[in-house]
Every structure is written in C-alpha cells, then in structure tokens.
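A.,

Following up on our hallway conversation. Structure tokens first:
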C-alpha cells in the first residue's frame, strides 16, 4: 500500500492508492462538463416532478401541474370517434330501411357494421359466411322461409321464429308419424313424392298417385297445392332443390314423422332498434334480397 496522496510522476495525477504488481490506478477527476450536465439533470428532474405525473401515491400518482394523462388523451379521442359514429348512427336510426339501401354512404356503413354484428351474434347458427347449416337457413340465396323483402327480414330478426316472442313467426311442420296421422308406409310414399318434386330418384315400388293424394290431403294446406311453400306459415318450397334439413329419404322420413320447428331467436331487446335495422339491410344485401 502506498500513501493516498501519491502523485503519479508521468501524468501528474493523484492515484487512488491501489496498486497491483507495481501498476497504480490513477484517480482522474470527472470532466467538468460531465459533472455540470449530471447536476443539471438532477435539477431538471425536480421540474419534471412538478409539471408531469411522477410519484406514486397510495391510489394513483401525483398528477403534475399540467395534469397530462395519456389515458385522458385516449378518452378524448374515443369521445370524438363516438360523436362522429353517433351522428352516422343517428342518420341510420332516422332513415327508413329503403332509404338506407338507396344511400351509398349509409349502405356502406350498414354493411360494415352489419358484418361485425353478424359475426358476434348470428354466425354461431348461420355460419360466418351466412351460408347456413342443417336446420339453419342459408341467408345468401333467394330462397326465404319467411320472406325476403327488407320489411319481412327485419320482422324475422326482430321477433324471431318460434322464439317465444309475442310477435314471433309461428307455424310448424307437424309430426305426422309421432302423432299417428300417417302410417309408416304412407310416410315413405309421401317422402318419395317430395323427392320426385325435385327430380330426385324414387323407390322402384313407389306409387306416384298415392303420394300425390297423401300430399294433397295432408301437406298442401301449408306447402301449397303446387308444393311451392307458403311464407305466411314458414312452410318451405319443396320444389326448389334447396333443403333446410335434407333431401335423402331417411331425413325426409324423419322430418315428416317427427316434425320440425327450427328456432330463430327474437333480437328485439337484445339488439337496439338501429342495429336491427342495420342487420336487416345487411342480410338483404347478402344477395338474395327481394
Ligand atoms: C340460435 C341460432 C340462431 C341465431 C343465433 C340466429 N339465427 Fe337466424 N335463424 C335461425 C333458424 C333456426 C332459422 C330458421 C327458422 C325456421 O326454421 O323457420 C333462422 C332464420 C333466420 C332468417 C329467416 C330466413 C328465411 O329464409 O326466411 C333470418 C333473416 C335470420 N335468421 C337472420 C338472423 C340474424 C340477422 C341473426 C343475428 C342477429 C340470426 N339470424 C341469429 C337460427 C338462428
Ligand atoms: C301446418 C303446416 C304444415 C303441414 C300440414 C306440413 N308442413 Fe311440412 N313444413 C312446415 C313448416 C313450417 C316447415 C319448416 C319447419 C322449420 O323451419 O323448422 C316444414 C318443413 C317441411 C320439410 C323440410 C324441408 C327442407 O327443406 O328440409 C319437408 C320435407 C316437409 N315439410 C314436408 C311435408 C310433408 C310431406 C307434409 C305432409 C305429409 C307436410 N310437410 C305438412 C309446415 C307444414
């Protein structure tokens, strides 16, 4: 160990007093500019603490005299966005269904918003592309159970079908087998008759005249004499080769024997009136609207 105030003879600088194998450590002072900058940053930080949010408190933090908050910035931006959107939504709320469809700007807005709402609420049943599935109708085609005009679609969405809503679409496919109205062989015969309506092959033993008779006596009341369906009753067209449940003989027998009563929920009360309007326009614009 050497003396603390030992001065290095080559550089003329004091050493720290540490020495290893004859090599001494210089105690070079920090450059003045660096030291000044260092103290300036400390002074600067005091100003910063006062002006900006800085110190954590038990709940929250010191707000600073500028009361700056990035959260408040976001809130203001969101409020502005909501205002612009709100104005547009108000325009939609005030417009009639037909007017929305005629106005390209409103139609575009309705389609964009409709797509999002559809994904959140309707896609689980109707499919993300609205193409439907067994028991869930395709909303892209021009085949409608309950009618494809704007007003009819809006009505279906508002009140649903067999939904329990007071204004629901009612009417269902009866259970001809379960309720003992038709015997099993009559059901097979009329199932084959239904297949023949769409030009599908029938059993070799199938009696066309008997099938037509059973249909006229039991089915025409809802599906119509020509089997083209009845939208008042939600009875599908049986001649268009579009099937809600299926056209193979086994599925037809099941439909006729046990009946069907697909449930479309009522959206009134769950979606606001403007959104229901938007959904009607959206579904109508999917391609099959009348
Ligand atoms: C829980 C399943 C379910 C959900 C969710 C649902 N639907 Fe339906 N939807 C149905 C069923 C089932 C039918 C067919 C009812 C029938 O058999 O008469 C239907 C029928 C419809 C029809 C009538 C189609 C026609 O041919 O007349 C429209 C329009 C419709 N849905 C739109 C919507 C929209 C828009 C939404 C979302 C806001 C939605 N649905 C959500 C099950 C659903
Ligand atoms: C009281 C009215 C009513 C009567 C009578 C009736 N149907 Fe229906 N039928 C319906 C309704 C409503 C549906 C649609 C059910 C649904 O959407 O869930 C339907 C659906 C069907 C379907 C399903 C079509 C598909 O696309 O999958 C077939 C097939 C059918 N009916 C055949 C018959 C036959 C055959 C008879 C006579 C033996 C008959 N219906 C009598 C009302 C009726």
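Then the amino acids I'd put at each of the 290 positions:
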């Amino acid at each position: 160990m050497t003396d603390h105030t030992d001065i290095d003879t080559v550089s003329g600088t004091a050493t720290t007093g540490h020495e290893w194998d004859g090599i001494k450590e210089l105690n070079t002072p920090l450059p003045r500019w660096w030291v000044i900058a260092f103290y300036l940053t400390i002074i600067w930080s005091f100003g910063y603490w006062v002006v900006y949010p800085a110190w954590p408190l038990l709940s929250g933090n010191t707000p600073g005299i500028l009361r700056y908050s990035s959260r408040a910035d976001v809130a203001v931006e969101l409020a502005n966005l909501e205002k612009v959107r709100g104005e547009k939504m108000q325009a939609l709320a005030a417009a009639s269904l037909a007017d929305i469809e005629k106005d390209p700007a409103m139609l575009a807005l309705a389609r964009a918003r409709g797509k999002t709402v559809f994904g959140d609420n309707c896609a689980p049943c109707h499919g993300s592309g609205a193409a439907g599935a067994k028991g869930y109708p395709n909303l892209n085609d021009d085949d409608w159970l309950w009618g494809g005009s704007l007003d009819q679609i809006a009505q279906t969405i508002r009140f649903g079908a067999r939904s329990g809503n007071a204004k629901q679409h009612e009417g269902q496919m009866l259970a001809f087998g379960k309720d003992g109205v038709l015997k099993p062989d009559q059901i097979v015969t009329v199932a084959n008759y239904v297949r023949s309506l769409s030009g599908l092959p029938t059993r070799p033993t199938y009696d066309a005249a008997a099938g037509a008779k059973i249909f006229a006596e039991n089915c025409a009341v809802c599906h119509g004499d020509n089997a083209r369906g009845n939208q008042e009753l939600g009875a599908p067209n049986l001649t268009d080769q579009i099937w809600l449940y299926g056209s193979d003989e086994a599925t037809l027998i099941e439909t006729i024997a046990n009946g069907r009563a697909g449930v479309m929920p009522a959206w009134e009360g769950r979606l606001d009136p403007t959104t229901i309007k938007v959904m009607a326009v959206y579904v109508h614009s999917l391609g099959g609207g009348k």
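The two ends are 102 Å apart (CA to CA). Curious whether your intuition agrees with the design.

B.
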